[in-house]
């Protein structure tokens, strides 16, 4: 179950074109029946597996596929 | 000679106050001289380039910083704020200039060894420039390069028994006042609860999954030395249930001039003889005090815990014996919707290890806010958007008169259909039998 769900997350991220960073609640929408804390556990596992990574502006944190899109600096206006 | 000419910054040093420009110049000189033979791991002249880029920004009235990036400590979603200069060729020393936040000890109690160790790490692996402390309370390390992040993290966690602080959409580093360690007003052990909840919620502190930042702060009494009521999403303020304890003999000693009011804090000027009626009784915001010339009385049920009388006469008045805390929610600084003070949610909660009553409220709030909060929306804004009544519901808090600021002014408590006999629908014909048109 958990492996399937993780696969769904990666597919979601790979399927998005033109956008590389996502808010936490973009992932909770994929699993409407799952509690937010369960979704968080999946994302944490994916971070540990180095498949996704955190991107932080300092005030807000987003998630993205490891190595995808901007690695540093602001997304806007770049 | 300085690497960059900084005439605009130099002006800042001419004022009467201590200047951060002088501090940075001092650090630049010390790094250049390197009297301790430190093996610098990032450019030696980064403080000089920092001054250079700031001077350029003052001149052009534009920033040359780009902030944000991949958090450079593996598994951590906060504690590091990436910062890059957009003029790296002119200012190579600050091409990468990341901030690291370090969890400060509860009550900000340090040993000199701890402070020296922090400085040793930062002299070698960072710019040497710190901010003690940031607004949230963290130790802030200003400026290092990406390869140093893991090294610094290793040393902090393995050699100093501390950890990174919070940033991003995380629980931010919890902060507290000195509490019972030094203060007789403290109604609970702020340091114990701050430490316990910091450990309890490590996952929330380091692995972000909130809509936005979330801050805890713990004030031991309503004097609010960490200003939790204004600066934290979840504010815990010490209070008491029973009566303010009065020592009438000590009251007389204040009146007679034997004891100095406010423990002598205002003794730099001659304010005349202490006048208990003008300076204490008439200052009470709820008029719940009286003084008949020999005895001070307090109508305790009217007391709003403003602390004024206790602050003025600490030897005569003491907080009650049945102590605990009030929980308030939703304060924030003016980013989206203006500044907001916290709203009282739970009037009294016991504060005893393992703090289950407090944890229950916190976790109910998080479950709701994680579900309903919009991206970049603070708890206070979610409360405003969905209503205080909803917060009462999700925290299983019954509505009570203390939730209402003024009668008939903020009627946010509404009946629901299932609370009203018969619900919203009724037989109009039956009604008309009893009430003519």
Q: Which features does this protein show?
A:
heterodimer; A: 78 residues; alpha+beta; Arc Repressor Mutant, subunit A; two-stranded antiparallel sheet; B: 437 residues; Alpha-Beta Plaits; Sulfite Reductase Hemoprotein, domain 1; 3 domains; five-stranded mixed β-sheet; four-stranded antiparallel β-sheet; 32% helix
Describe the structure.
The complex is a heterodimer of chains A (78) and B (437). By secondary structure, chain A is α+β, with helices and mostly antiparallel strands. Chain A has a single domain, classed as Arc Repressor Mutant, subunit A (Orthogonal Bundle), CATH 1.10.10.10. In chain A, 41% of the residues lie in helices and 13% in strands. Chain A is built from three helices and two strands; from the N terminus they run αααββ. Chain A has a two-stranded antiparallel sheet. In chain A, strand 1 (52-56) and strand 2 (61-65) form a beta hairpin. The relative contact order of chain A is 0.19. The model of chain A has no long low-confidence stretch (mean pLDDT 87). Chain B has 437 residues and is of the alpha+beta class. Chain B folds into three domains: 7-159, Alpha-Beta Plaits, CATH 3.30.70; 175-239 and 325-419, Sulfite Reductase Hemoprotein, domain 1; 245-318, Alpha-Beta Plaits (2-Layer Sandwich), CATH 3.30.70.20. In chain B, 32% of the residues lie in helices and 13% in strands. Chain B is built from 15 helices and 16 strands. Chain B has helices at 7-12, 20-33, 46-60, 112-125, 146-159, 190-200, 202-206, 228-231, 248-255, 276-279, 308-312, 356-372, 379-386, 388-394, 428-434, and strands at 65-67, 69-70, 80-81, 83-85, 99-102, 130-132, 139-142, 175-176, 216-219, 234-240, 245-246, 289-291, 296-298, 317-318, 323-329, 343-349. Chain B has a five-stranded mixed beta sheet with strand order 8-9-10-15-16. The longest helix of chain B is centred in the last third of the chain and has 17 residues, at 356-372. The A-B interface holds A 23-25, 28, 35-37, 39-40, 43-44, 47-48, 53-61, 71-75 and B 66-71, 75-78, 80-82, 84, 99, 167-170, 203, 207-213, 367, 370-371, 375-376. Strand 1 of chain A pairs antiparallel with strand 2 (69-70) of chain B, so a sheet runs across the interface.
């Amino acid at each position: 179950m958990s492996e399937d769900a993780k696969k769904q997350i990666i597919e979601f991220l790979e399927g998005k074109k033109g956008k590389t960073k996502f808010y936490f609640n973009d992932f909770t929408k994929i699993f409407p029946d799952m509690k937010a804390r369960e979704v968080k556990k999946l994302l944490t596992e994916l971070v540990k597996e180095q498949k996704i990574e955190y991107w932080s502006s300092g005030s807000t944190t987003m998630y993205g596929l490891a190595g995808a899109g901007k690695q540093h600096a602001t997304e806007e206006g770049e | 000679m300085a690497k960059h000419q900084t005439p605009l910054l130099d002006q800042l040093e001419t004022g009467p106050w201590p200047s951060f420009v002088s501090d940075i110049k001092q650090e630049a000189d010390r790094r250049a001289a390197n009297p301790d033979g430190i093996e610098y791991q990032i450019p030696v002249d980064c403080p000089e380039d920092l001054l250079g880029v700031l001077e350029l920004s003052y001149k052009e009235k534009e920033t040359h910083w780009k902030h944000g990036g991949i958090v450079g400590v593996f598994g951590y979603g906060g504690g590091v704020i990436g910062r890059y200069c957009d003029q790296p060729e002119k200012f190579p020393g600050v091409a990468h200039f990341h901030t690291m936040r370090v969890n400060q000890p509860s009550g900000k109690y340090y040993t000199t060894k701890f402070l020296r160790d922090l400085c040793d790490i930062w002299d070698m692996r960072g710019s040497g420039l710190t901010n003690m402390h940031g607004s949230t309370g963290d130790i802030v390390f200003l400026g290092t390069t990406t390869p140093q992040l893991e090294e610094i993290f290793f040393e902090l966690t393995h050699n100093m028994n501390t950890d990174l602080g919070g940033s991003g959409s995380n629980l931010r580093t919890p902060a507290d006042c000195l509490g019972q360690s030094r203060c007789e007003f403290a109604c609970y052990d702020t340091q114990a609860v701050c430490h316990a909840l910091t450990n309890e919620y490590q996952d929330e502190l380091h692995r972000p999954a909130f809509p936005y930042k979330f801050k805890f702060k713990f004030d031991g009494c309503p004097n609010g030395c960490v200003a939790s009521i204004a600066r934290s999403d979840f504010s815990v303020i010490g209070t008491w249930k029973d009566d303010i304890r009065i020592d009438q003999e000590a009251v007389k000693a204040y009146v007679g001039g034997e004891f100095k009011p406010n423990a002598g804090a205002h003794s730099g000027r001659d304010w005349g003889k202490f006048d208990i009626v003008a300076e204490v009784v008439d200052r009470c915001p709820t008029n719940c005090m009286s003084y008949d010339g020999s005895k001070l009385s307090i109508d305790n049920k009217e007391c709003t815990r403003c602390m004024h009388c206790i602050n003025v006469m600490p030897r005569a008045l003491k907080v009650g014996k049945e102590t605990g805390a009030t929980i308030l929610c939703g304060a924030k600084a003016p980013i989206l919707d203006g500044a907001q003070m916290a709203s009282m949610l739970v009037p009294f909660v016991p504060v005893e290890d393992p703090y289950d009553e407090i944890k229950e409220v916190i976790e109910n709030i998080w479950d709701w806010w994680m579900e309903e909060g919009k991206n970049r929306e603070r708890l206070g804004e979610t409360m405003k958007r969905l209503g205080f009544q909803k917060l009462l519901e999700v925290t299983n808090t019954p509505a009570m008169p203390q939730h209402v600021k003024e009668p008939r002014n903020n009627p946010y408590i509404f009946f629901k259909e299932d609370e009203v006999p018969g619900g919203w629908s009724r037989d109009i014909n039956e009604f008309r039998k009893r009430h003519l048109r």
